[in-house]
Amino acid sequence: MVKTRYLIIIFLILLLGIFLFKYIKSGEEKKVKKAFKLLSNYVEKKPDEDLFSSMNRIKNISRLFLEPCVFKIEEDPLYCFSGHFTRDEIGGYALRGRSYFLELSLEFDDFKIEFPDRETAHVLLRGRLTGKSKIGENIEEVRQLLCILKKVENNWLFQHFEVNEILKK
Amino acid sequence: MSKRVNQFFFPSINKKFLIRAFLVALASYVLFGHIVTPFIIRGSSMEPTYRNGSINFCLKLRYILSKPKRFDVVAIHFSGKRWLLKRVVALEGEEIEFRQGKLIINGKMIDEPYIKYPCNWDLPLRRVEKGCIYVVGDNRTMPIGEHLFGQTKIEMVIGSPLW
Description:
The structure holds 2 protein chains of 2 kinds. Helix content of chain A is 40%, strand content 41%. Chain A contains 3 helices and 6 strands, in the order ααββαββββ. Chain A has helices spanning 2-43, 51-63, 87-99, and strands spanning 65-73, 81-85, 101-117, 120-133, 138-152, 155-164. In chain A, helix 1 (2-43) packs across helix 2 (51-63) and helix 2 (51-63) packs antiparallel against helix 3 (87-99). Chain A is elongated. Chain B is an alpha+beta fold. In chain B, the strands form 2 sheets. In chain B, strands 1-2-11-3-4-9-10 form a 7-stranded antiparallel sheet. Chain B is elongated.
């Protein structure tokens, strides 16, 4: 009877430990997902967006990235964008990219997040870019992305962005 | 009888019960997490072989000791927790093309009895790279540009459906 009691206590402590670990991990996962949510919000463009809002968004987009940030978008039928970029360069490309569109939306889902250490997050996810260009073209592109984020002063910032091509026609 | 029913739904929390519960949890985790993982099919790219909304299990040990063969249906890791279900039509080193919907491998037309709907695809000749396989869905009624298919690395194959 005493042994059973000890077993139950040990089992409950183990269970509590697992719940605590999952709770802390899910807390960091939420912060990582928040970084993607912010990127998605800042990239979004509506037809009635004014210049001031646009510049504000560009400034916020570049703040989400570490310096330098590595981009690896190769062998994509639409564009090629690879190299090390500073925040200013990323802001410049984001401004040019957004100016091509009348409406733009970038959504992320299907996250698989791993923490190789406390300050690094490896994220495998799906990115969906939809929009309408100024010449009336509708775009809808889905890619699998591999991103690496680093924790800097309690904020998760993007360090590496890569398009992971699963099926090559 | 009522005592047995009572014991079944409200077992005594003793050492034997705790050990049994732990072993069942562990066995379930190993079996359904790493050997036969359940999944729901979303999309119609493999119809009529696999219908949208149907449930299946992915046998993850299928290709531990062997490589996928032609006509095997495989689950490929796509993104996050999502997989793609496609059929292998060409192996590494082979030349593949589609002419008026017909599959041609190394210059020879290949019969595909699992294709039930008409297809008119034209895909220029290409070679499957080393370490890769070429996969396509069974439902080829949509325009070729709208169907997700192509060559993928063999290590992206997670397993195959149980049925």
